[in-house]
Amino acid sequence: MAQYNITATSVKANKTISATSPSFPTPAEFADQVAADANAASYALDLNHDDHEGVWDWVGTATAV
User: Fold this and answer.
1) pTM of the prediction?
2) Euclidean distance between the first and final Cα of the chain, in Å?
Protein backbone atom coordinates (compact mmCIF):
# COMPACT_ATOMS: atom_id res chain seq x y z
CA MET A 1 0.00 0.00 0.00
CA ALA A 2 1.16 3.51 -0.78
CA GLN A 3 1.48 6.33 1.72
CA TYR A 4 -0.22 9.68 1.24
CA ASN A 5 -0.08 13.00 3.04
CA ILE A 6 -3.60 14.20 3.81
CA THR A 7 -4.01 17.97 3.99
CA ALA A 8 -6.78 20.53 3.86
CA THR A 9 -6.54 24.07 2.52
CA SER A 10 -8.70 27.10 3.25
CA VAL A 11 -8.49 30.23 1.10
CA LYS A 12 -10.41 32.25 3.72
CA ALA A 13 -8.07 31.21 6.55
CA ASN A 14 -5.05 31.37 4.21
CA LYS A 15 -3.82 28.04 5.65
CA THR A 16 -3.00 24.48 4.78
CA ILE A 17 -3.23 22.07 7.70
CA SER A 18 -2.92 18.37 8.46
CA ALA A 19 -3.15 15.93 11.35
CA THR A 20 -5.60 18.02 13.37
CA SER A 21 -7.61 14.92 14.24
CA PRO A 22 -6.52 11.42 15.27
CA SER A 23 -9.13 10.12 12.82
CA PHE A 24 -7.12 11.58 9.92
CA PRO A 25 -3.42 10.84 10.47
CA THR A 26 -0.81 11.83 7.94
CA PRO A 27 0.99 10.21 6.30
CA ALA A 28 -1.43 7.33 6.01
CA GLU A 29 -1.58 4.17 3.90
CA PHE A 30 -4.27 3.70 1.25
CA ALA A 31 -4.82 1.13 -1.46
CA ASP A 32 -4.77 3.77 -4.21
CA GLN A 33 -5.15 7.47 -5.03
CA VAL A 34 -8.94 7.17 -5.18
CA ALA A 35 -9.11 5.90 -1.59
CA ALA A 36 -6.69 8.60 -0.42
CA ASP A 37 -8.72 11.30 -2.19
CA ALA A 38 -11.89 10.04 -0.51
CA ASN A 39 -10.18 10.25 2.88
CA ALA A 40 -8.97 13.78 2.13
CA ALA A 41 -12.49 14.83 1.16
CA SER A 42 -13.79 13.37 4.43
CA TYR A 43 -11.11 15.27 6.33
CA ALA A 44 -12.19 18.56 4.75
CA LEU A 45 -15.85 17.78 5.43
CA ASP A 46 -15.00 17.09 9.07
CA LEU A 47 -13.17 20.43 9.36
CA ASN A 48 -16.07 22.28 7.74
CA HIS A 49 -18.55 20.56 10.04
CA ASP A 50 -16.48 21.51 13.10
CA ASP A 51 -16.19 25.14 11.92
CA HIS A 52 -12.39 24.82 12.15
CA GLU A 53 -10.73 28.27 12.24
CA GLY A 54 -14.20 29.80 11.78
CA VAL A 55 -14.28 29.09 8.03
CA TRP A 56 -16.19 26.61 5.89
CA ASP A 57 -14.16 26.39 2.71
CA TRP A 58 -11.74 23.57 3.57
CA VAL A 59 -10.74 21.40 0.60
CA GLY A 60 -8.89 18.14 1.14
CA THR A 61 -5.90 16.91 -0.85
CA ALA A 62 -4.07 13.59 -0.87
CA THR A 63 -0.47 13.64 -2.10
CA ALA A 64 1.62 10.53 -2.57
CA VAL A 65 4.70 10.42 -0.36
Assistant:
1) 0.94
2) 11
